[in-house]
């Protein structure tokens, strides 16, 4: 019991974390499927979520949001207007809980390029939100594709990140898709954005 709680001045109340309640009611069976299985061009993005000591986070949740391969969103906030996807069943949103080893996965298709707010276009990417114990709010990062070096070199957001930290935002090729590990803290900390 803290000194304050015991009626003595000074001291602090012990901290509390949020969760681990993310897997209760916040995930659903088809959450990891941005597109249905069997969609032409679909691939898995798999990764692990790690805390600041390098231990896996078993009770986290990863959300992804992306445009379709044509660079469009079927959403009223798209400044060009909402446009249904040319990919049947594409929903643009994925949600995966992390397992006992911190593993997560989403099945998706390659995103297109969207305007960057000037005269250019952003490199193909996914927006990634991370929810985990100890976080009072989500943290947000981006996942860039490893085979888009020319587009990545022109992306204004990626180029605003110090060169030595950019690799934390680029996925690696994996056996059946891409691998994107997320480190909440530590030497390999993923770059997160204030939004």
From TrEMBL:
<protein>
    <submittedName>
        <fullName>Protocatechuate 3,4-dioxygenase subunit alpha</fullName>
        <ecNumber>1.13.11.3</ecNumber>
    </submittedName>
</protein>
<keyword id="KW-0223">Dioxygenase</keyword>
<dbReference type="GO" id="GO:0018578">
    <property type="term" value="F:protocatechuate 3,4-dioxygenase activity"/>
</dbReference>
<keyword id="KW-0560">Oxidoreductase</keyword>
<dbReference type="InterPro" id="IPR050770">
    <property type="entry name" value="Intradiol_RC_Dioxygenase"/>
</dbReference>
<dbReference type="Pfam" id="PF00775">
    <property type="entry name" value="Dioxygenase_C"/>
</dbReference>
<comment type="similarity">
    <text>Belongs to the intradiol ring-cleavage dioxygenase family.</text>
</comment>
<dbReference type="InterPro" id="IPR000627">
    <property type="entry name" value="Intradiol_dOase_C"/>
</dbReference>
<feature type="domain" description="Intradiol ring-cleavage dioxygenases">
    <location>
        <begin position="42"/>
        <end position="171"/>
    </location>
</feature>
<dbReference type="InterPro" id="IPR015889">
    <property type="entry name" value="Intradiol_dOase_core"/>
</dbReference>
<feature type="compositionally biased region" description="Basic and acidic residues">
    <location>
        <begin position="69"/>
        <end position="80"/>
    </location>
</feature>
<feature type="region of interest" description="Disordered">
    <location>
        <begin position="69"/>
        <end position="96"/>
    </location>
</feature>
<dbReference type="InterPro" id="IPR012786">
    <property type="entry name" value="Protocat_dOase_a"/>
</dbReference>
């Amino acid at each position: 019991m803290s000194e304050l709680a015991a009626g003595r001045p000074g001291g602090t109340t012990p901290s509390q974390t949020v969760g681990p309640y993310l897997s209760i009611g916040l995930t659903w069976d088809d959450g990891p499927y941005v597109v249905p299985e069997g969609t032409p061009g679909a691939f898995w993005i798999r990764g692990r979520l790690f805390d600041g000591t390098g231990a896996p986070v078993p009770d986290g949740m990863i959300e992804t949001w992306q445009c379709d391969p044509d660079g469009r969103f079927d959403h009223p906030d798209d400044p060009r207007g909402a446009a249904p996807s040319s990919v049947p069943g594409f929903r643009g949103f994925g949600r995966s809980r992390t397992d006992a080893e911190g593993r997560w996965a989403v099945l998706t298709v390659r995103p297109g390029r969207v305007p960057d707010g000037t005269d250019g276009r952003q490199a193909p990417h996914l927006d990634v939100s991370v929810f985990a114990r100890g976080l009072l709010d989500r943290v947000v990062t981006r996942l860039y594709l490893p085979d888009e070096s020319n587009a990545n070199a022109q992306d204004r957001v990626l180029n605003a990140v110090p060169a030595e930290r950019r690799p934390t935002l680029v996925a690696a090729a994996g056996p059946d898709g891409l691998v994107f590990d997320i480190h909440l803290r530590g030497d390999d900390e993923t770059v997160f954005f204030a939004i």
